[in-house]
């Protein structure tokens, strides 16, 4: 069965972190350090009760890209090191 597409509108983004609403996977940054924090996996890598199944690589890459874009746009960090979001 094909994966459910990951789309930008599935994410909730604040200055404190980013969350993929369907899976509950979220990244919460430490205050003043947007690329340091904690990750809650939620249903990442599991089929959801409603049958949707998201590719974890696509989910991770989209999440990293959107977060780095948000951090840059908001001027939250000068390094823009999205690879640290692991």
Cα distance, first to last residue? 27 Å
| SSE series | EEEEH
* Inertia-based shape: elongated
Query: How many strands in all?
Result: 4
Number of helices: 1
Residue share in β-strands: 25-35%
Helix content range of the residues, please? 10-25%
* Widest β-sheet, arrangement of strands: 1-2-3-4
Low-confidence stretches: none
- Look at the structure and give the mean pLDDT: 89
Overall number of domains: 1
What would you call the structural class? Answer: alpha+beta
Radius of gyration: 13 Å
Q: Note the main sheet.
A: 4 strands, antiparallel
Quick take:
This protein is α+β, with helices and mostly antiparallel strands. It has one helix spanning 56-74; strands at 11-14, 17-20, 25-30, 33-40.
Description:
The chain is built from 1 helix and 4 strands. It has one helix at 56-74; strands spanning 11-14, 17-20, 25-30, 33-40. Strand 2 (17-20) and strand 3 form a beta hairpin. It starts with 10 loop residues before the first strand and ends in a 12-residue tail after the last helix. The model has no long low-confidence stretch (mean pLDDT 89).
Write the layout of secondary structure elements.
Elements: E1 11-14, E2 17-20, E3 25-30, E4 33-40, H1 56-74
Antiparallel strand pairs: 1-2, 2-3, 3-4
Key words describing this protein structure:
single chain, 86 residues, 4-stranded antiparallel β-sheet
